[in-house]
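If I may wish for something, please sit down with the protein I am sending here and say whether tokens and residues agree:
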Amino acid sequence: MNRQSNQRHAIPRRSIESTGSHRGTDWESLASQAKVYLVAGAWQSAHDLLLPHLHPILASGTLLPESVECLCIMLVACSRFGHTEHRAVGRRWLRRMATRDVGLSPEAALLTAYCLAQADADEGNYLAARTRIEGIPDDVTRQASAWARARMALLLGRVELRDANLTAAEQHGLEAVGLAATAESESLRADAFSFLALVARTRGSLMESSALYAKAARYCWQAGDMAGHAVGLLNRA
């Protein structure tokens, strides 16, 4: 997203330690609504739905355990747009929340681990990302949504690819494809096939990579992601 858009969504530079009450918000319902947009690949709609509710918390309030899932969903969208400030502040909150026993739901717990592991990977600390992912309890993973589990599989695949573990990276990519189908998300399928194409290209299998990029481009088209469709075709070429 361009600089003007980043400024439009900028968080006021005030202390985020002061107390505040936002308990009137139905966070569970809000998260469900935002996930409708995420599954469809409507990242901006998900972001803009959540921002008015989360903005006061990120600027000057106290993060509530029940709002964590919504924060994570917004940070996933922010990663798509490159909202540096939102991610920095949001991840700082999540790091604090992760050190407390606040009884997060499985979905919120998995997405918190995902956002923080993504932050580790973005900083080049792949070992920390792997350790964080591997520390997620099995029952949390089992109870989380297919969409969230697919995102985590793609992130772990990215870590494996960085370590040149191509077989493991491929397995995580294939897992993400299956979970994306369960989640009925064309946008997520596009990301999963793009990742498999990258694995194939890294192996030097250019024909297979081209076919997988074509598949990813088709799912981008079906999801209405014209920019992703163009990128898929360009990668194929």
Notes: Residues 1-22, 226-234 have pLDDT under 50 and may be disordered.
